TrEMBL record:
Its cofactor is [4Fe-4S] cluster. This is Pyruvate formate lyase activating enzyme. Residues 46-71, 75-104 form the 4Fe-4S ferredoxin-type domain. Belongs to the organic radical-activating enzymes family. It catalyses: glycyl-[protein] + reduced [flavodoxin] + S-adenosyl-L-methionine = glycin-2-yl radical-[protein] + semiquinone [flavodoxin] + 5'-deoxyadenosine + L-methionine + H(+).
């Protein structure tokens, strides 16, 4: 039976598309955006998360770990991630909830059973289910087709939140079942993309052209990062590309960068590479919004 790793299912979401939604966050993404506020979404593997501030150093986790995934250093416990098999045994012994595993396998049926509980709410609010990540489109297409067909049969509205880096065939096969796309564009500058986001800009733009040809309903999402893509030049380039390729944009979501996710890097044993990124001011966000308006875009939100 096909399964996919999910790291969160968020009910009552109002930021991931129309109405009230349940958002399913799948694990794994081919990009590595420096500002990613869900770093646990990047790896395709399960990961152990440690909330150091909750830890009372009772050592119960270490005593019951079957794989030497936790060691004692100068009287304090530390995760030894290279030995951790993410078996989850330690979670059962930590009464302080200081440990967590990011990533749980679900079948399509299991996900449908969970999200359909809020069906009435979707109907009343014009909402539905958003499949997000990580990069949901990089999950197995067999799994995604099964999930989307089942949701469709129940009449549940489906939105896909994608960064665009996935096989073109996956988009071609899935578009007929998807009601709306939230499509991330970070920059169309190749060098900047490689430096801050990773390879794949060409694929991302090609896939956008492809789903546009297939008449997908598209919201373009732009994470606005100070020092990366917040200058008029970068925004103009992005707009020119959208216009030149006749992308039919239903809405533009401008999402200001924030640093709220930085603590999560520490919990995963990673360091947060802030580089030269900064939080754009409200005035800057308004100025960017106005550039889109000047080019004829009408439905623009700041903050999603
Ligand atoms: S998840 Fe398993 S292997 Fe990893 S630290 Fe906990 S008990 Fe040890
Ligand atoms: S069991 Fe929990 S509280 Fe105790 S040492 Fe391990 S992580 Fe800390």
């Amino acid at each position: 039976m096909k399964e996919a790793l999910v790291f969160n299912i968020q009910r009552f979401s109002i930021h991931d598309g129309e109405g009230i939604r349940s958002t399913v966050f799948f694990k794994g993404c081919g990009l590595h955006c420096k500002w990613c506020h869900n770093p646990e979404s990047q790896s395709y593997q399960k990961q152990i998360i440690r909330y150091e501030e909750r830890c009372k150093n009772c050592k119960a986790c270490m005593n019951f770990c079957p794989h030497q995934g936790i060691k004692e250093v100068k009287g304090k416990i530390e995760l030894d991630r290279k030995n951790c098999h993410t078996c989850g045994t330690c979670l059962d012994y930590c009464v302080y909830n200081a440990l967590e595993i990011a990533g749980k396998p679900y079948t399509a049926n299991q996900l449908v059973e969970i999200v359909k509980r809020d069906r009435m709410l979707y109907e009343e609010s014009g909402g539905g289910v958003t499949l997000s990540g990580g990069e949901v489109m990089s999950q197995s297409i067999g799994f995604l087709l099964e999930l989307c067909k089942k949701l469709k049969r129940l009449g549940i509205h489906i939105t896909i939140d994608t960064c665009g880096l996935a096989p073109r065939e996956s988009y071609q096969q899935l578009v007929p079942y998807v009601d709306a796309f939230l499509y991330d564009i970070k920059t169309i500058d190749q060098q900047k993309h490689e430096l801050f986001v990773g390879d794949g800009l060409e694929t991302i733009l090609d896939n956008l052209i492809e789903i546009n040809k297939m008449d997908a309903i598209i919201t373009i999402r732009v994470a606005v990062i100070g020092g990366f893509n917040d200058r008029e030049k970068e925004i103009q380039e992005m707009i020119q590309w959208l216009v030149m390729n006749q992308i039919k944009v239903k809405k533009i979501d401008l999402l200001p960068y924030h640093e709220a996710g930085s603590i999560k890097y520490q919990r995963l044993g990673r360091s947060y590479e802030k580089k030269k990124m900064s939080v754009p001011s409200p005035e800057k966000m308004e100025a960017i919004k106005n550039i889109f308006i000047e080019h004829g875009f009408q439905n623009i939100s700041i903050g999603g």
